[in-house]
Design goal:
about 20% helix; alpha/beta; about 700 residues; Peptidase_S8_Ser-AS; 7-stranded mixed β-sheet
Length: about 700
């Protein structure tokens, strides 16, 4: 039986039905509106924000220009646009690593002798599972290529973000964000595995194709796999998920696998890709904004966020003039034309869940632009707009509405152009759409693991694919802005490639540990990172261990390692049978995998970089083991504890002394509830430090000593 995934990214096309999309194609003014729009965030910012700059380099080459040429990153996605400058072979490129066993497969408009090189060294496509499930692709309805070539753009974008070559002097529309584009590991090699195909304006990936791609990637010799797809809860058991099984096989062979955590936030408990042998990535912002002035009647001025390249002037009207009940939705249009009008819409009326719904409605009414008032936590210029749109919060939207109510005449409003401002916006903030924990599949393992930039990421794009993927959009671009956990995932993949190159003896678990224990939890104002979709500070269910810090991850000091047998014990402890576990293993010679003492026990002792106690009723002690990957000399680590509210935490020993590199030490953590509490999560931290390294592990404790509690 075949299953399908819809990969996780917050694109407009997924939020309109096929009838609405087809109707938009008939509106001539859509083309004109698109030409007046600019794109989102700055070219270089996400990697500069992470400290990996390639400009103004002085004596010592930065990590991304020193490491990576020996590493092969596999991208499981919608294919590749090989003509992009991101995938050109650098003149200084070294020979393809001798460990590479893969191939480039030809097909429609894809010639391996032309399109593959010392950068793009592998390209395959997998269509059998998709066509067995959905039938042959209808190329009249879903433009596609029967080859590794990408039409949807998603795969080209993620590949460029992870390992794209350094390309200088590029920008989006209207010359905003001009700078240097590159991936996190620009010297790394790229192998493309096209597992996802277009269906009704969405990307769909079948499990049969995913598992086939994992098998090939393992055989071909990739070192890192990046996969930006998933399935919303309820989650399938690990032994029934091809993605989890394939990733398990990869981990057995020493291959790091990173997944996006999904775009179902901000509700708790919806995180995807939660197996402990992969890294699950949340999405967050960078420190860039696009303030846009709104001037009404020449005197009343407010500021919103937009990407408008030139000034727009029109009369200002509230949505009730054009939409039933003031609800800015396609079906609520009153068939009144809004020529040369800028419409004020509120997300709270209807409600309008997605800004794209209001944009489609405004286009249908023939409006010139849209002012969209929504929660201040959702004022993000994420992707290309269908119609010039200024985002304001509910307060400013109400001020505009009140001005309209008081005005004796119809006001005239001028909008834009937008400005690019760097460093004045506090960042990072977790994106409101980023899926949150706890894991619904294995609540004793914290997911997501980490957060990384995923808002307005500029990367390569197929020149024959419009930026919005909508009928009626006839623009041709080579660089496009996209947002979603699909965009944060390849950021982590790029960092993994650098770590694997710098530390070739590290296991996937060691790389994951280095990324998690060096992450930070405070923003550029030194306050706790904010959680988009709310007004509160983040907790580990929002950001996992924190925000990725590539430079610190290169030298973490200590790491938490795990092996295949640890993952097997994890599966035993959650109650899987020998037969179910054997179905996940590449090789199993033993007739018995689990013993009776394993079944339905907690995995709190699983040697993960984070510590989760899923049900604390009484005093409990757990164990962790760390390995020294710092200097090969005597090193002393001291412990510091930030205790969860209502929990006493004691650690023994409180000092660990390492005499050489790779030496291991274990420590024990005892948790004791100090108050009666029912069904409440509390959070803390353990930090080991030697004065140079700071090895931090988040603590997640579910207090359940006062009533009902989930089983452990």
């Amino acid at each position: 039986m075949l299953y399908s995934y819809n990969y996780g990214f917050s694109g407009f096309s997924a939020k309109l039905n096929s009838t609405q999309a087809a109707s938009l194609a008939k509106l001539d003014q859509v083309i004109t509106v698109f030409k007046s729009k600019s794109l989102k965030l700055h070219t270089t910012r996400s990697w500069d924000f992470l400290g990996l700059t390639v400009d103004n380099v002085r004596r010592t080459p930065p990590p991304q220009l020193a490491y990576g040429s020996d590493i092969i990153v596999g991208i499981f996605d919608t294919g590749i646009w090989p003509e992009s400058e991101s995938f050109k072979e650098p003149t200084e490129a070294k020979p393809i690593p001798s460990s590479w066993n893969g191939i480039c497969v030809g097909g429609e408009d894809f010639d391996p002798t032309v399109h593959c090189n010392r950068k793009l060294i592998g390209a395959r496509f997998y269509l059998r599972g998709f066509e067995e499930t959905y039938g042959p692709i209808d190329f009249t309805r879903d433009p596609e290529y029967r080859s590794p070539r990408d039409y949807l753009g998603h795969g080209t974008h993620t590949a460029s973000t992870a390992v794209g070559s350094v390309v200088r002097n590029v920008s989006g529309f209207s010359d905003l964000g001009r700078g240097t584009a590159r991936g996190g590991a620009p010297l790394a090699r790229l192998a493309v595995f096209k597992t996802c195909w277009g269906k009704d304006l969405e990307g769909v990936c079948t499990e049969a194709d995913i598992l086939a791609a994992f098998d090939d990637a393992i055989h071909d010799g990739v070192h890192v796999i990046s996969a930006s797809f998933g399935s919303s809860p309820p989650l399938s058991p690990f032994f029934e998920s091809s993605a989890d099984i394939g990733a398990f096989h990869a981990a057995e062979r020493g291959i790091s696998v990173v997944f996006s955590c999904g775009n179902d936030g901000p509700d708790p408990g919806v995180v995807q890709n939660v197996s402990p042998w992969v890294v699950s990535v949340a999405a967050s912002t960078v420190d860039r904004s696009f303030p846009t002035r709104i001037v009404i009647d020449g005197s009343f001025t407010l500021t919103g966020q937009s990407l408008i390249s030139q000034e727009i002037t029109g009369i200002l009207e509230v949505a009730t003039t054009y939409f039933s009940g003031g609800v800015c939705k396609w079906e609520n249009w009153l068939k009144i034309i809004a020529s040369e009008t800028i419409i004020l819409c509120f997300s709270t009326l209807g409600p309008v869940q997605f800004i794209e719904e209001a944009q489609a409605a405004a286009i249908r009414a023939n409006a010139s632009a849209l002012i969209f008032a929504a929660s201040p936590t959702k004022q993000l210029a994420e992707e290309v707009d269908m119609i010039p749109t200024v985002r304001v919060d509910i307060l400013h939207g109400t001020m505009i509405r009140n001005y309209l109510a008081r005005s004796p005449t119809v006001p005239v409003v001028k909008i834009g152009p937008s400005k690019t401002v760097i460093g004045e916006t506090t960042a990072p903030t977790v994106a409101y759409f980023s899926s949150r924990g706890p894991s619904s599949q294995s609540p004793d393992i914290l997911k997501p693991d980490i957060t990384a930039p995923g808002i307005g990421i500029l990367a390569a794009w197929p020149s024959k694919t419009p930026p919005t993927m909508l009928p009626g959009d006839h623009r041709s671009i080579e660089w496009n802005f996209q947002s979603g956990t699909s965009m944060s995932c390849p950021h982590v993949a790029g960092v993994m490639a650098l770590l694997q190159s710098a530390h070739p003896d590290w296991s996937p678990a060691a790389i994951r540990s280095a990324i998690m224990t060096t992450a930070y939890t405070r923003d550029t104002s030194y306050d706790l990172i904010l959680s988009g979709g709310s007004m509160k500070s983040t907790d580990p269910f929002d950001i996992g261990a924190g925000h990725i810090n590539p430079l610190k991850a290169m030298d973490p000091g200590l790491i938490y390692n795990t092996r295949t047998e640890d993952y097997v014990l994890f599966l035993c402890n959650i109650g899987y049978t020998d037969q179910q576990i054997k179905s996940m293993l590449l090789h199993s010679e033993s007739s018995t995998i689990c013993f009776p003492s394993h079944s339905y026990r907690t995995n709190a002792d699983f040697n993960y970089p984070s510590i989760t106690i899923p049900s604390l009723r009484f005093t409990r002690t757990i164990k962790r083991t760390v390995s020294n990957v710092g200097p090969n000399k005597s090193t002393v680590y001291f412990v510091d504890i930030i205790r969860p509210v209502g929990v006493e935490v004691a650690i023994w020993p409180q000092i660990m002394v390492f005499s050489k590199c790779q030496q291991e030490h274990s420590y024990y953590v005892t948790f004791k509830p100090t108050k009666i509490s029912s069904a409440r999560y509390v959070f803390g931290e353990i930090i080991w430090t030697d004065g140079v390294h700071r090895v931090r592990s988040p603590l997640v404790v579910f207090l359940s000593n006062g009533g009902l509690f989930p089983s452990s």
